[in-house]
Amino acid sequence: SEEKSLNFIEEIVENDLNSGKYETLVTRFPPEPNGYLHIGHAKAICLNFGLTQKYGGYTNLRFDDTNPVTEKTEYVNSQQEDIRWLGFNWKNELYASDYFDELYSFAVKLIEKGLAYVDESSAEEIAALKGTPTEPGQDSPYRNRSVEENLELFTKMKNGAFADGAYILRAKIDMASTNMLMRDPIIYRIKHAEHHRTGNKWCIYPMYDFAHGQSDSIENITHSICTLEYVSHRELYDWFIEKLEIFPSKQYEFARLNLTSTVMSKRKLLQLVNENLVSGWDDPRMPTISGLRRRGFTPKSVREFCERIGIAKRENLIELSLLEFCIREDLNKTANRVMAVLDPIKLIITNYEKGTENLIGENNPEAEDGGGTRVIPFSKELWIEREDFMEVPAKKWFRLAPGAMVRLKFAYIVKCEDFVKDENGNVTEIHCTYIPESKSGNDTSGINVKGTIHWVSAQHAKTAEIRLYDRLFTSETPDAEEGDFKDYLNPQSLTVLPNAYIEPALADADLESRYQFIRKGYYCLDRDSTADKLVFNRTVTLKDTFKK
Ligand code: ATP
Ligand code: MG
Ligand code: MG
């Protein structure tokens, strides 16, 4: 592999290891189990796990499950499956909720140090005293409660004496700070809600800022990597660690992945699922890891994409076509070439009387091991693509037309002698003759034709449903448009071809198989397939059809 320069996080890690600041690198991937993981998470996964693969140490999987209302075990399981599928293994499976006791005692410690207080102001009153970025805030009337009173109230909060929102616990920092997050942030709130792991044990839950850094610290995370929205949280992250005198994890921020024609927040993806605008979290049009998997992406192609986009300190927007490029490049080397006719029309070879002939097809000329060959049955009646015939040929048309010759891939040259139309004027049959001396690999006919088309033998073909996918949104930046992002859904994002014909060899396809349908793109079997009906997804077209 080519030499690559270090990204800025790798530079920090190398410096910290070389200087002896840390002996062992420890990172974590901290998803909130409130949805399925998406391609943006893949970037964070590749970064965190990639660092410890490269520099040693280990990476934890920590579910950031401090918000009882949105979190579910279904999401925990899918997130684990997706990380494994990407090819990564975590050292410890951990849950922020496992630290609820410890976090609670951290809060008590802050109260005892005079660094936290219970506030009973309403949300409006708190907002009114918060100030603005240019004006300092003002102290809450409850800011100077005694330690004893704070401890008593906080214990009552924990014991369920109060309703949701009646009291909160705040850190006592600085109401005049230029960083709004340092103006006595809320660290615990009352929420009488069942948690997916702790059940009804707790009715107070820590806020993100009070849970995340302390969880990092409990796990001795050396480099806590997050996205740029958290830059302003870093001061608070450091403040809690300093005041609690615990392991000094450090937070570093990188630019999140933004992709054209895509929304990525779990909240928005959940809307698409709940409103049945897609078939589920793993709909092949979704930017989720499970959607990409079902679409036919390989783990390698997703890792390659994450490698190519790199790690930056500034926000940017990546073209969806780069992701498609990565899967195309991978499949070009690995996918067997097969024949499938998506929009079929019958071709009859009037002078072919040999019954069934078994032809030999090359599986993949690009494969490193040569790819091998397979048997393809050929017979008198074939299916070809409707678009490969023109009744009145255009200029430079090298495919079938009355009187024209074309090569059938892996087989013979045929000449169109005649065609049949139905009462509506649609062509229903094409009649050809074949040149017996023109067999592929053994052509002594001396005839040169410019066009080669694919086909399947009608008698041997299997039927299949083919699903073609396009971008899910018509806008390049659906998040930035006026109004609702769902107004920019692409009504043509899914096209179903119910009646395609495929080579019989494809009956053996499994969910891991990847194919190039010759001239048509890369395809994989969908899990909706049954014994009677195979369903294939188009992963990506052969060429970049991205319109600018
Ligand atoms: P979302 O709402 O889109 O799921 P999130 O940050 O709330 O984003 P988390 O489950 O908290 O989702 O994210 C887990 C980790 O993945 C975090 O460290 C976060 O920074 C990272 N992450 C999330 N979205 C992206 C993205 N688009 N690009 C890179 N990293 C991301
Ligand atoms: Mg988050
Ligand atoms: Mg979130």
From TrEMBL:
Residues 25-332 form the Glutamyl/glutaminyl-tRNA synthetase class Ib catalytic domain. Residues 452-526 form the tRNA synthetases class I (E and Q) anti-codon binding domain. It catalyses: tRNA(Gln) + L-glutamine + ATP = L-glutaminyl-tRNA(Gln) + AMP + diphosphate. The keyword Signal does not apply. A motif ('HIGH' region) lies at residues 31-41. Residues 335-434 form the Glutamyl/glutaminyl-tRNA synthetase class Ib anti-codon binding domain. It is found in: Cytoplasm. ATP binds at residues 32-34, 38-44, 227, 256-257, 264-266. GO terms for molecular function: ligase activity. Keywords: Aminoacyl-tRNA synthetase, ATP-binding, Cytoplasm, Ligase, Nucleotide-binding, Protein biosynthesis. L-glutamine binds at D64, Y208. Monomer. This is Glutamine--tRNA ligase. It comes from Pedobacter jamesrossensis. The gene is glnS.
